[in-house]
Write a structure and sequence with these properties.
With 106 residues, the chain is of the alpha+beta class. The chain has 2 domains: 30 residues; 75 residues, SHC Adaptor Protein (2-Layer Sandwich), CATH 3.30.505. The protein is 37% helix and 19% strand. The chain is built from 2 helices and 4 strands, in the order ααββββ. The chain has a 4-stranded antiparallel beta sheet, covered by helices on one side. A hairpin with a 7-residue loop joins strand 1 and strand 2. It is elongated, with a radius of gyration of 21 Å. Keywords: Membrane, Transmembrane, Transmembrane helix. This is DUF3301 domain-containing protein.
Length: 106
């Protein structure tokens, strides 16, 4: 058996890792805040029901290391949806039930 046959799996692995790295770099380089806000606002419109509007949502930068942007949407019934998003555009966590906005207890 020729010696080069032994290096084919290694070469295939190197090519696969290079393609994967290029893809992740491309996503990170081209993803903008606008894309993230539009994506999670559309998700809110699906979850929020009939009274949900685009203007219910706003975004602010994350304060912890993995969170890049937090898209917050508050519907007409004062139910708030928070979408913490990382730099790759992935949702980090989503509470199973929306949080009710209430006055702070003193």
């Amino acid at each position: 058996m020729p010696r080069w046959v032994w290096f084919v799996p290694f070469g295939a692995l190197v090519v696969a890792l290079a393609v994967w790295g290029f893809r992740l770099g491309w996503i990170r380089a081209t993803l903008t805040e606008t894309h993230v806000i539009e994506t999670y606002t559309a998700r809110y419109l699906e979850m929020g029901g009939e009274g949900a509007r685009i203007t219910d949502c706003s975004a602010q930068p994350g304060r912890m290391a993995p969170v890049w942007i937090i898209v917050s949407c508050t519907g007409p019934d004062r139910v708030r949806f928070d979408f913490p998003v990382d730099r790759m555009g992935r949702l980090l966590k989503l509470a199973p039930d929306p949080q009710r906005l209430e006055a702070p207890q003193t």
